[in-house]
Design brief:
It holds the Pfam family PP_kinase_N. By secondary structure, the protein is of the alpha/beta class. About 35% of the residues lie in helices and about 20% in strands. It has 19 helices and 28 strands.
Amino acid sequence: MTTENTGRIAEGSQSVPAPVEAPPVSQELDLDASENYFNRELSQLQFNYRVLKQALDPAHPLINRLIFCCIFSSNMDEFFEIRVAGLRQQMKYGRETVGPDGMLPEQVLGEISRVAHEYITEQYDILNNVLIPEMERENIHFVRRREWTPAQAEWVRQYFEEEILPVVSPIGLDPSHPFPRLVNKSLNFIVELDGKDAFGRETGMAIVPAPRSLPRLVRLPDEVCDGGDNLVFLSSMIHAHADELFPGMEVKGCYQFRVTRNADLELEDDLEDLASALRGELLSRRFGDGVRLEVADNCPEELVQFLLTEFGLTERDLYKVHGPVNLTRLMAVGSLVDRPDLTYSGFSPAIPRQIRSKESMFDAIRKQPILLLHPYENFSPVVDLLRQAAKDPQVLAIRQTLYRTGADSEIVEALADAARRGKEVTAVIELRARFSEAENLELASRLQEAGVIVVYGVVGYKTHAKMILIVRREEGRLRRYVHLGTGNYHAGNARLYTDYSFMTCDESIGDDVNKLFQQLTGMGKALKIKKLFHAPFTLHSRLISLIEREAGHGEQGRIIFKFNALTETQLIKALYRASRAGVKIDLIVRGICCLRPGVPGLSENIRVRSIIGRFLEHTRVYYFGNNGHPEFYCSSADGMERNLLSRVETAFPIEAPALQARLHDDLETYLADNCQSWSLQPDGSYIQNQPADGEERFAAQLVLLERLTGKP
């Protein structure tokens, strides 16, 4: 299989900042020049847009296309909560920083507003004019108020009185009832009123928060419908019966809105009790500063301005939408509608022949190292390894890092079981895993109750490495078994994210992992590591060194990197230098990429592609040609400053020839994709690849699915 880009380029691309002219070819090229770098935030926006475009791709089933539209909303929520909030914080406290692209926070915010407004307008256009009509043709109906039959209207009235009215708390606005503190991303209504209430108050305005416990989408019973699947929005029910919330008063208007708030947590590095401090911060996350206001596009201008003032926002932060203000909740369609013909077909993740037998995982790993690619291959062997370790009387100790896993996972149960059986079990839990903090606090408590030694890693350095170390007595000596991964120990993620799992009993790797756990749980100077690269100590410098080695091979050099993001400047400059030396470089970067490819004299030997499909690409692989003696590394780390310089990460070598060949073939498969891949252009735009005339579609994820599971 060739590594050349196949196919032709599809016409059209998304909105990007104005192109910057390529720097002239020069031996004295300034690699620090701002025109050599794309802006991080704007690149992330473009990834979100590529996700949105999947909603238009007929290669995906219809309901999954709707889900892509919802995922775009979820991604945009987090983008505003974290990235936009961070830029606003810089300006608020006078701490503006300029990135390698040279843009000031004010400039970035202005460009974000322009591009985000364009993308969100397109999102609602896709929903209203493409997805909903196609669902109508499939007999799936979003029934609007004006379309309710008398029987449906009566059912809605009863549902409102029994399920909604008892839990809604309307808030009239007057001197004794100031504007309420509204929870981040909650659905709310601003209501125009006329008349006086029982106390003689004449406020003219009220706020109705929609209870978060209520579903945003409800399926109408078949008996009040004429067939098909009929769904009604909670917002429609509240609109229709808003007058019942204000008896005796006239409701002149009722309009949806939602505020997105700063949800990043700020913790000092010198905390005495990280868990207690985190519990306090989690309470404030729900009520951080506003960063975005979404309102229904029919909301009167005076009410819009009132809301902007209340949240301290400007027109730049305002998004008027033609439809529900929170499309993420439309994901519920997948569970409300039983239409398997409109969703991805199921498949059974494969279990390699090596571990299908009834022999123990320890026996299988001793025979040869194991490499699994999830979700095509089952995550269960990782769980089985821990389960068997928990029950095996020869196992003395288990150590594991946990970033995201879920308090009720089988992994957690296996660790707790091992501790209850008297084994020495240590869990290094990263409490600051964004948006999993509360779950990880619960996880820590549960493991401590079972007798597990719980450590919260190193303050100031998130523990992002994925490691399991099992110490087992065999024939009078101790042997270490290791699992290293590119993704989290989360069974749900393992069904949706592509990640590698590597299991080995290599003595050097086992010793390295043991030393890493010593550094995490104890104190002392960094220990000498034999085979692993580990951040924040050696990973960054070793990657730079290996890139420079390839540069020394000139046109015979070869580099393939696959990861989720590339932003770290020194890494990018090393890749630029390698390109100028003639090294052929392919970067498979799912999301953010600040490197500018294809620029003569700078990066003409670098190609960047992004794969977007059914599964979230999450594997991190580094390949170096090394003049015919290739080296492969899998890693927990992306090419970002935080991963390489301020987190605990690992990169681990894959040395078995058969596993190296397998990794190389996987990378070649991604590079041959001609329909679910997007090529980054020198001007910053992404263009979707398409098969050339007469060429068959080649979707990498579908090829891997069929190759590993036999399921087309």
